[in-house]
Amino acid sequence: MPSKKKREIRERRQKTGESYQAAQRQWKQANTPLQPHTPEWLDKLTAVNEGQAEHSKLIFELSDSTDVCAVCGDTPTTLYRSTEAAVAVSLVLLCDDCFVIQTTRMGAKLVLAGGSK
Ligand SMILES: [Zn+2]
């Protein structure tokens, strides 16, 4: 059964002429949700929502940690996953208050991604 993964890797190889291993690595990278609040996560967020990225960067600096709510810097946080396909970064750590605000007032579609801190 040709999976979506195999098809995408084949298409990528046809376009780029990469080796199977390289194309597979790229595919995995593109399809693995970024760990929340890492430099890569911030880079990706910056590309689509610079304001939010700058805000979160400041929060992490002020908190001297990235293990805090991406909106307000509070702890404890819970790991959420966005169910919106178009979202830049699918995983985010939020405190309870910010989760409520994001989902009820900002229209964010978030589900528990397992694991809280
Ligand atoms: Zn918060």
Kindly describe this structure.
The protein has 117 residues and is an alpha+beta fold. The chain folds into 2 domains: 32 residues, no CATH class; 84 residues, no CATH class. 50% of the residues lie in helices and 14% in strands. It contains 5 helices and 3 strands, in the order ααααββαβ. It has a 3-stranded antiparallel sheet. Strand 1 and strand 2 form a beta hairpin. The model has no long low-confidence stretch (mean pLDDT 91). The structure holds zinc ion. Zinc ion binds next to helix 5.
Characteristic terms for this protein:
single chain; 117 residues; alpha+beta; 2 domains; three-stranded antiparallel β-sheet; elongated; binds zinc ion
